[in-house]
């Protein structure tokens, strides 16, 4: 557990800006334009209620659900990694081997059968010339 704590940045918990779109600060959600100002005490108390309510609700939700959701996503990505490493990548390699053989087979057929025909047609049509009258 000590290595995990050294690895985690406890201050910047979104270093890759994965959730930059979830701006939930009071100023990012509620704004009063000029000409539509509530009394200063209402504005201050609203901001305090917003921040306190958000912090309390988020703490309760993450406390109740965060560990289980973290466990779920860890298992989900473990299954995806397993499937990619042990199933998909080897199957793609198998397809590559079989398709490489098919590519050689069809390439040989085209070289033997179609190439002489195309070369002959090219020689026939290369002697055609068009003159304007």
Could you explain how this protein is built, in words?
With 133 residues, the chain is mainly α. It has one domain. Helix content is 73%, strand content 0%. The chain has 3 helices and no strands. The longest helix has 87 residues, at 40-126. The model has no long low-confidence stretch (mean pLDDT 90). May act as a scaffolding protein within caveolar membranes. Interacts directly with G-protein alpha subunits and can functionally regulate their activity. This is Caveolin. One of its GO terms (molecular function) is molecular adaptor activity.
| Strand-pairing-aware structural class | mainly alpha
Topology, number of strands: 0
Question: What would you report as the Rg, rounded to the nearest angstrom?
Answer: 34 Å
Shape assignment: elongated
Order of helices and strands: HHH
Major sheet? none
Q: Beta-strand level of the residues, as a percent range?
A: under 5%
Function: May act as a scaffolding protein within caveolar membranes. Interacts directly with G-protein alpha subunits and can functionally regulate their activity.
Keywords: Cell membrane, Golgi apparatus, Membrane, Transmembrane, Transmembrane helix
GO molecular function, one term: molecular adaptor activity
Transmembrane segments: 55-74
């Amino acid at each position: 557990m000590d290595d995990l704590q050294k690895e985690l940045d406890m201050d910047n918990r979104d270093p890759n800006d994965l959730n930059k779109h979830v701006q939930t600060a009071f100023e990012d959600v509620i704004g009063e334009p000029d000409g539509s100002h509530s009394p200063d005490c209402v504005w201050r108390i609203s901001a305090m209620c917003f921040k306190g309510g958000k912090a309390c609700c988020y703490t309760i939700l993450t406390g109740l659900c965060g560990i289980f959701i973290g466990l779920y996503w860890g298992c989900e990505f473990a299954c995806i990694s397993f499937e990619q490493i042990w199933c998909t990548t080897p199957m793609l390699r198998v397809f590559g081997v079989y398709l490489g053989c098919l590519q050689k087979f069809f390439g040989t057929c085209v070289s033997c059968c179609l190439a002489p025909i195309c070369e002959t047609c090219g020689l026939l049509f290369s002697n055609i010339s068009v003159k304007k009258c």
